[in-house]
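task queued by scheduler; priority normal; single chain, no ligands, no partner chains; default sampling; output format set to structure tokens
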Amino acid sequence: MAALPKSIRNVDELETLLSEPAERTIRAMRGLQGDIIVLGVGGKMGPTLARMARRASDLAGVARRVIGVSRFSSSRLEQQLNAWGVETVRCDMLDRCALSKLPDAANVVYMVGMKFGSTGQESLTWAMNSYLPGLVSEKYSGSKIAAFSTGNVYGLCPISTKGYPEDSPLNPVGEYAMSCLGRERILEHFSRTNQTKMAIIRLNYATEMRYGVLVDIAQKVFSGQPVPLSMGYLNAIWQGDANNMSLQALGHVSTPPFVVNIAGPEVLSVRRVAEEFSARFQKPVQFTGTECSDALLSDAQMSYGLSGRPSVSESQMIDWIADWVSRGGESLSKPTHFENRAGHF
């Protein structure tokens, strides 16, 4: 990969950087047979992941279709994906008839899920997060499937442990996290019964300039809002690194599913991160509450053994985000609500 820039000037540069494939990803795409379909491509991470799959396949010299599926409430996103060489299909995947008509593909990246707005819409949350994976597992029973999950399935982790590894007991807090565990169990069931090779990716937390936990903290400091400390610690990983690791997971699928954490290597203190932004903005920082002795933390050492350590450090992300926020860079205006300890989103 090219040397990292000191500053990310605009969205075009950002999306190019987020979709830049690592050499290991190019090798992984060279080793895959067949097309790639990304279900739920319209989310925050999907567009750059699909673009990375396209770029890596081209660099690997592999002719394949990369297809993105979403309801596409924004036609602009659909046009952007097409310009990047990603085919698009509009589909409400809870419609069984529409789902059955989706193109076949040897490789599936499953990114569909519901988190924000899940409180008050619990039945839809369970349908999206636990019922739909079964339908997709039936449709793509002969494919390799890399499915996104979340570190929330572990529940709150004592800070002293530095994060839960993949073989830890699962203890989800709140209906969102419970429905995500439901997704994992349904996928595991169909992996075992249909011998479908799968990987389950427990992500915790992907970050770029327009959204993410670090962006939430930066925006509060910049605007003079107090930073909550009750969820006082976190993991954060550059979305480009998460994209690379997730695509490489297609090379590690198994029956029953291969489970891998994707997260940043450090346990970050919310207080210290806020103070870093305060220094860069030259603005005072306010806090509310006090740190608890546990948080949502994942140990991602296994993923580093497979994919290498993340290429973008915590300090680099803070530098970029501080510069972006101070210049009034674009925001998705989708706070993560990372401070919520009761699992209500």
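post-processing summary
- The CA atoms of residues 133 and 187 lie 6 Å apart.
- The mean pLDDT is 95.
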